[in-house]
Amino acid sequence: MRKIMLLLVALTVAMPLTGCGDQRILEKLGFSQTSSYDLLDNNRLEIAVSMPKADPQARTQREVLSAIAASGKEARTKLAKLTNLLLVSGQLRNALFSMTLAKSGMIKHLDTFLRDPSISPRLKLSIVNGNAKQMLQKDYKQHPITGKYIDGILDKEAMGRTIPLTSLYSFTRDLYDDGIDPVMPVLRDSGEHINIDGVGLFRDDRYITMIPAKEGLIFAFLRGSFKQGEVSVQLNGKQSTGDTIMFSSLISRRKVKIGRDSTGAPSVHIHIKLKGSVLEYTGKLSLAEPSDRKRIEQQVAKKLTERGQNLIAYMQKNRVDSLGMGIPIRNHMSYAAWKKLNWPESYPSVKATCSFTVIINNTGKAE
Hints:
The structure is a single chain. This protein is an alpha/beta fold and about 375 residues long. It has helices at about 1-15, 70-80, 100-105, 105-115, 130-135, 145-160, 170-175, 215-225, 290-315, 325-330, 335-340, 345; strands spanning about 30, 35-40, 45-50, 60-70, 85-90, 95-100, 125-130, 185-190, 195-205, 205-210, 225, 230-235, 245-260, 265-280, 350-360. Strand 8 and strand 9 form a beta hairpin. The longest helix is centred in the last third of the chain and has 28 residues, at about 290-315. The N and C termini lie far apart (about 95 Å).
């Protein structure tokens, strides 16, 4: 009995000691929150990481390390030698890629993220129109931590639907889906601020072209249903003198209809039903009159349809199915017929159209 009691006591003392060999003290860890990737002329990578400083006495709130290497893992080894902290990736929130690198292909650079179990699939991916490291290193006025500043911009703009919020998961999901091409927001350094430059369009894993930021919401209408956002529509005349209407509190519903053209090839029609509140109207018609309101709705629908049709034509010209029109077409045919169609080759010549129906929910205060 005495031996059994001694054994139980020994086990009780030993149990709390298990795992002590893997201690991680917060002050000794370097949490990589934002990383940047630039492709150099010799096909090597310049990789930088931004880490917040835990020391309240430090002169800066972050530390930026950079290294040149042939791969991400080799760069990580070099970066670890530049600091007395233990580099960890569990807090990585954003990855910035230069446009030059994005044009060369993304998947070989994303592979290191996909294989690392400590990196979240919600990691945000963005393209920098310029040098990604320079953007990450730069100190922006009133924004002491650039990585946090970028994170806030992406969240805010995605909430307003001017850009898609691209994560590691969503990019690779669309990359391996044969009915859609992935997209990624594009950032630009504008001096004292970071601006959204547009929406980057990919064919497979390579950046091809970009939709300008002003057309980001039109792209969102065509890509899927959503709530929230604002859109300004120029009804006639020049930008500085024409009638303008501004919609807020948008509710957009997208429906895709698959048909056949005169040759028997598949066709696509995207219809968007849009409801919203009018924040501003500079035209001569009266929003209080039902007939004038109906006329305004038709004018807005016509302009949005024109802008949407131009975007579709632009994407077909560049052979990027960023709207995922291949998905509903694939769902309306057998697997054998889909493979025979050869979607990447057929997509540019597919008859693809769009139309908008606009409904004014309210016009603010009564006139």
